[in-house]
Amino acid sequence: MSDRPLAAPSPLPRIDITDPGFKADPFPLYARLRDESPVHPVELPRFGRAYLVTRYADVAAGFRDDRLVKNRRTALTAGQLARGPRLPRALSALERGLLSLDGEDHHRLRALVHQAFTPRRVEEMRDQAERLADELLDAALAKAARTGHFDLVADYALPLPLTLIARILGVPERDGARFRSWTVSLLSLARGNPLPRIPSVLLFLRYLRRLVAERTRRPTGDLISALAAAREADDRLSADEVLSMIVLLLTAGHETTVNLIGTGTLALLRHPDQLARLRDDPALVPTAVEELVRHVVPAETATERYAREDLEIAGTLIPRGSLVLLVVAAANRDPGWFPDPDRLDLARSPNRHLSFGQGVHYCLGAPLSRLEAGVALPALLRRVPDLRLAVPEDALRWRGGMVLRGVESLPVAVR
């Protein structure tokens, strides 16, 4: 045995989880954090200090810990609120949403919204989703015939959930182009690029308010009408709450599905054996969607939570008012819960991933996201059996930001 002392482990590098370069492959560093620093302090642009929680058991417990709250106004001191990021007054209605409330306020809103967003209502959207997927693939393949490739994100993954949610909400066909343009501005605002987009977002909110008022007076069979009509005893959603729910569907729900289809396809291209397995066995679709959600993590972290009191997680003291990020991307590859966690296995079972959260804030849009991915991916593999990347993989650009994880574009070619 050598008398030479063991080398000290190399220090952890500075981590910027919002950097597009980090998004491309965060998993090796998250593995180190699980082992060496399971609750890790970082400095984030606009937010300052935050704590990354990376082990599965701690992340799962965090989802259910009522000391970690969504409403920052109940957790932060007056001084902390004054120093933190603030939403412009004109956008304050958006703070009345499911992602910003706790306790009775959240329970009331979720109970009302759930009436308009049941699994039965979601399943009724399947035929629309299947027709739309085929329409988009027709156009994408026509483009590929002319140019040799198409962008799987811009031509398929993005317009599928966006067009579907517009139809579900009841946006008139004549307003489709404006609706899509305004949604792009809203998504840019949600990613933290506020100033250039605010005028466009304000126009969008004004448009949505008019649409909500119209459906309240003259309801049809769409989701906005259902949200406006949802009630429990004498309680119903306010106009601001309906508006906030629509915005949530367009941002958190829509972008996660885009990322699931886009990065899910990239994962399949990286694993041709699994791609062939899914193409040849349609019965594998449900477990394949669950495994892709676990493996590519369209939302790398859960949305923000704040410590409403001093607390300790895995031996680390977290002061009151601190931003706590439950890192789903790290938890979903914890070897204590997932055998061979870095391997893509479309038949993985059990698969207790945390991509849709747990507890009272479990993702209300999970059934819709599963349906859309479960339609989009098999349709793509059926219609384009010889799909391949049209650019070197290191040329792909990833989106920056705190929560979401996905590629900006995915150029693909047909042999």
TrEMBL record:
The keyword GTP-binding does not apply. InterPro entries: Cyt_P450, Cyt_P450_B, Cyt_P450_CS, Cyt_P450_sf. The keyword Heme applies. SUPFAM superfamilies: Cytochrome P450. One of its GO terms (molecular function) is monooxygenase activity. Pfam families: p450 (PF00067). Keywords: Heme, Iron, Metal-binding, Monooxygenase, Oxidoreductase. It comes from the Bacteria. PANTHER family: CYTOCHROME P450 YJIB-RELATED, P450, PUTATIVE (EUROFUNG)-RELATED. Belongs to the cytochrome P450 family. This is Polyketide biosynthesis cytochrome P450 PksS. It comes from Pseudonocardia hydrocarbonoxydans.
